[in-house]
Design goal:
The chain is mainly α and 321 residues long. It is built from 15 helices and two strands. The radius of gyration is 24 Å and the shape is elongated.
Length: 321
């Protein structure tokens, strides 16, 4: 595994303590994607240390701040495909937090090994006796944004464009909303994932459910990027640029909150590991502020699915709300 580290991030080969720390995580059986994320974040930090002429073992909080400053001004690798970036120029707060995690854990390791006395990254933690409630702030504040969802006019505009799409795309968008599916979950659906015992739809074939229609990859499983391009094209034509492959999931979970679903039920349905993720939709729905709205939204889920699958498009049903 160390050879892989050195091939992908040569800087790790020049810092044995860092490579040794990563090997510990490998030996503990951490997921490859987790190890990869840790290696990337730590390698980027070590590169900054080398550029600044700083020994990472003895680096202080000011040196880590230089790394944070670079992250906040670094353009996203997704470039023009990014719809919104919180900072306007650099990486998002969540991405910066992700990059800092392995750096903080690495310094925790050095403290345990007796090579340091304190962690220069730190973390938001409660410290008895401190002012302002005893909360110590981390290097980067955690910004929690409510998910964006379209209003009804924007939703109808998206539906009007979707109505002209091939049946595969209409079914995919309907499933993405109806089951609050993530992009990866939608594109990797298999026919056996459908339960004919509880559904009226009966699938005769076996294998991937959604296939490519292009000449180059005809009949192959639809890729994540192809589906993203389909949704981006629909969004652009509808004049709703913020609509993305994740919007249908946000909208579905918000609608469930509007209908009065309890927190644990929405969390289970969405597959959230933390209830904090689900709370965003509870707040977004505003259900505590308008009981009348909740009662009027009882049919909204079925209405959206009907509008997505109706052959004639959304115009005929636009007055049903």
């Amino acid at each position: 595994m160390s050879v892989v580290f050195e091939e992908k991030w040569p800087v790790l080969g020049r810092h044995e303590l860092a490579a040794g720390w990563l090997r510990i995580w490998v030996d503990l059986g951490r997921a490859p994607r987790t190890i990869d994320a840790y290696a990337r974040g730590l390698a980027e930090y070590l590169q900054v240390c080398e550029r600044e002429g700083v020994d990472p073992v003895t680096a202080n909080r000011a040196h880590v701040a230089v790394f944070v400053r670079e992250l906040t001004t670094r353009p996203s690798h997704r470039g023009a495909n990014v719809v919104l970036i919180d900072s306007g120029s650099g990486l998002s707060s969540a991405t910066i937090q992700q990059r800092l995690v392995p750096v903080r854990l690495f310094y925790d390791h050095l403290i345990e090994e007796g090579l340091r006395e304190f962690n220069p990254v730190g973390r938001g933690r409660y410290t008895p006796g401190r002012r302002f409630g005893g909360q110590e702030r981390g290097l980067v504040p955690r910004l929690i944004k409510l998910p964006w969802i379209p209003d009804e006019r924007q939703w109808l505009d998206v539906l009007a464009v979707t109505a002209k799409e091939p049946i595969r795309n209409r079914v995919m968008l309907a499933l993405a909303y109806d089951a609050a599916l993530r992009r990866e979950e939608l594109c990797t659906l298999q026919t056996e994932d459908l339960d004919p015992g509880h559904r009226t739809l009966r699938v005769q074939a076996h294998g991937p459910l959604f296939l490519s229609e292009s000449r180059r990859n005809y009949g192959r499983p639809l890729s994540l990027w192809t589906w993203s391009k389909v949704v981006r094209r629909i969004a652009d034509e509808a004049g709703v640029p913020r609509f993305s492959t994740h919007t249908t999931r946000h909208l579905c979970l918000t609608d469930l909150a509007r209908m009065g679903w309890e927190l644990h039920a929405i969390s289970t349905f969405a597959g959230h590991r933390s209830p904090e993720s689900t709370l965003r939709y509870i707040h977004l729905s505003g259900r505590d502020l308008s009981d009348k709205l909740n009662k009027s939204m009882e049919h909204i889920h079925a209405w959206r699915v009907e509008m997505l699958t109706r052959p004639g498009g959304p115009a005929a049903g636009a007055t049903t709300l």
